[in-house]
Write a structure and sequence with these properties.
By secondary structure, the chain is an all-alpha fold. The relative contact order is 0.11. The chain is elongated, with a radius of gyration of 20 Å. The chain has a domain at 24-71. The chain is built from two helices and no strands. The two termini are 38 Å apart. It has helices spanning 2-45, 49-69.
């Protein structure tokens, strides 16, 4: 009986932590997607060769991060 009570207690404590992690993951995903949209916007607006190389590199990094974070 004691182990059952402890299990219920631990589950009750861990659920809010999981929900907080899920919210932070969603927020991070939204931020990454917003950064990607900003880069695409800058690419459409025109750029120098040096800036284009930098933006494309940043875009690659963000896409990799999006693949990890946004599931």
């Amino acid at each position: 009986m004691r182990s059952l009570a402890m299990t219920v207690f631990l589950l009750g404590c861990s659920i809010p932590a999981l929900e907080a992690h899920e919210k932070s993951a969603k927020a991070e995903c939204a931020e990454v997607r917003q950064q990607i949209r900003r880069i695409y916007s800058r690419l459409r607006a025109g750029y120098t060769a040096k800036t284009g190389i930098r933006l494309e590199a940043r875009l690659r990094e963000l896409k990799k991060k999006r693949a990890r974070v946004c599931r």
